[in-house]
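Students often ask why we bother encoding 3D structure as a string. The short answer is that it lets us treat folding as translation between two languages. Here is a chain of 258 residues written in the first language.
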Amino acid sequence: MLQEKRHQRILALLAGSGHVSTERIANDLGVSRETVRRDVLVLQTTGRLRRVHGGVKIGGPESEAPLQQRLQTNTLQKRAVVQAAARLLQPGQSLFIDAGSTVSMLAEELASLQGLTIITNSFDVALKLAGPGHEGAPRHQVHLLGGRPRPGLAATYGDSTVAELMRWRPDWAMLSPVGIEATLGASSFEPAEAELARAMVRQAHRSVLLADDSKIGVQSRLSFCTPDQIHTLITNRRAARHPALLALQQAGCTVSLA
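And here it is in the second language, the structure alphabet:
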């Protein structure tokens, strides 16, 4: 069957239910799962479907839930991830931190340490890390990047934010993507978030991606970091049974299970 015919058949299957498994597509078309995967990747770029675990759904990628809602999901898994990330850091080092629920938890972990230089666009991260230590002196040097605040995101974005961060060359970038998988790498939903994360990866000496198992194998709209650009992907142990994690490792991504 020609590729165009396969694409038409996949979209026809989706039109009937809005969701279809990879196995059903392969059986219906009489092709391998690898052929289905390639066809789905092509169709996803058109916005007519999106990949989900085990299959595809109709339409484009969904936006992220609000921050306060995300802070209440997968909390144990996220906590394990950020504790492992904090153990990588030494006093005197510097790091970028972006905005999101996982890095908000990372800030809580780093608040008990001292001697770091943190550059962030997140109001929440900056406030959690700017507090004084036991003797009244600041625990860390915190630099909040300027720019345009985004409604509902409690963070700054835009050209001026990126221009300001380009002055820095920190030891680490610790970032939390919407999803991460072997083909697209780490990805975000919003263009401004992806642009900022991409610049942080480019400027930092080492980039660490913090992603609980729910983000493994997930593609969002915009890639900001390929697997070979990642120094370490930290995820929780439950991700070890996810086939997409092995694909990431085969693509050159070093994985640490927390």
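Translate back mentally: The two ends are 44 Å apart (CA to CA). Keep this in mind for the problem set.
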